Amino acid sequence: MNATPPVARLQLGQMLRELRETAGKKRSEAADTLECQVAKISKIETGRATLSPGDARLLVDLYGADDEVADAVFQLARDARKRTQVRFPDWVKRFVTMESIAESIDVYEPELIPGLMQTAEYAMAVTAATHPEKTGEEIEQMANTRASRQARLADEDPIKYSAVISEAVIRRPIGGPAVMRPQLEHLCRLSELPNVTLRIIPFAAGAHSAMGSSFRVIRLRKPSGARTVYLEDAVFGHYLDGSTQIDRHARAFELLQSVASSEADTVATLQRVIRELT
What's 33-98 look like in SS3? Predict the structure, then answer.
């Protein structure tokens, strides 16, 4: 499946930046090749601008990309230029960019299956409930965008993804049994991946370190060790970059893991709930 335009722009920018850095080229050299300003190269590499097929060819030639990589760039360039009815705000685009260059993400969710772990049907059911103003086509496009991002869990250099969720997440019948059963089965399969950890906080655990909140602690590949915390509400995404704030959320996640079920017990709980849905 081809990437949707917003995701394609971000993936294209990330790929071009990595190709440029591997080739030892500067943005100014890329700008000279395209006869444009350096600012345009920056916008392309951060997913804020597209480029023509001819410009894509000039860049892959400059960077010495092989045929397979060049074909991937051209496909993303085509996908990025397609029109879509869905418009994503800048804060959403920034988060998707951060996600695409992350080395690891620790996520706590008390209400929903984390985005990278959602099935398409679950994502559409959630989107329909949270965005009642969207048409069916727009809802499907938004769900497909999320599905494109999920490749990060199983690509050649996958992200390390650790999720802790409340038991309420798997008990809430989003979309009914026909949606929840495949979703919980999908979680079981994801739990088998060596880079994915999923644990559930049972109701019996009582109070814990993240009551009333959800968050993501994101560790970036470059610069090495750089971290940020991402918080999201109904209308905006927020980033916490202060070391004290980051450390506090990282510690909260450690405490969540200490009261959550083990990975094996989590899978057993999922399987039990699946049986209850049959």
Answer: HHCCCHHHHHHHHCCCCCCCHHHHHHHHHHHCCCHHHHHHHHHHHHHHCCCCCCCCCHHHHHHHHH
Q: Cα-flanking dihedrals φ and ψ of residue 115, to 5°?
A: -50, -45
What's the rounded Cα separation, in Å, for the pair 85 and 230?
A: 27
The pLDDT of residue 1 is: 41
> Of 197, 214, 156, which is closest to residue 18 (Cα–Cα)?
156
Mean pLDDT over 245-267 rounds to 96
- Residue 256 neighbours by CB distance under 10 Å: 21
pTM of the model: 0.69
User: Which stretches within the chain are classed as H helix?
Assistant: 5-23, 27-34, 38-45, 53-63, 67-80, 90-100, 120-130, 136-149, 167-171, 177-190, 243-259, 263-277
Angle at 256 between CA 194 and CA 236, to 5 degrees: 90
Task: Answer yes or no: are the C-beta atoms of 161 and 104 closer than 8 Å.
Answer: yes
Partners of residue 200 on adjacent β-strands: 165
183 backbone dihedrals φ, ψ, rounded to 5°: -65, -45
Strand 227-232 to 102-109 pairing: unpaired
- pLDDT tens digits, residue range 181-206? 999 999 999 999 999 999 999 999 99
pLDDT in tens, 1-23: 455 556 677 778 878 988 999 99
pLDDT band at 178 (very low <50, low <70, confident <90, very high): very high
Q: Read off the amino acid at residue 126.
A: V
115 Rama class: left (phi>0) / alpha (psi -120 to 50) / beta: alpha
User: Torsions phi, psi of 229, nearest 5?
Assistant: -115, 135
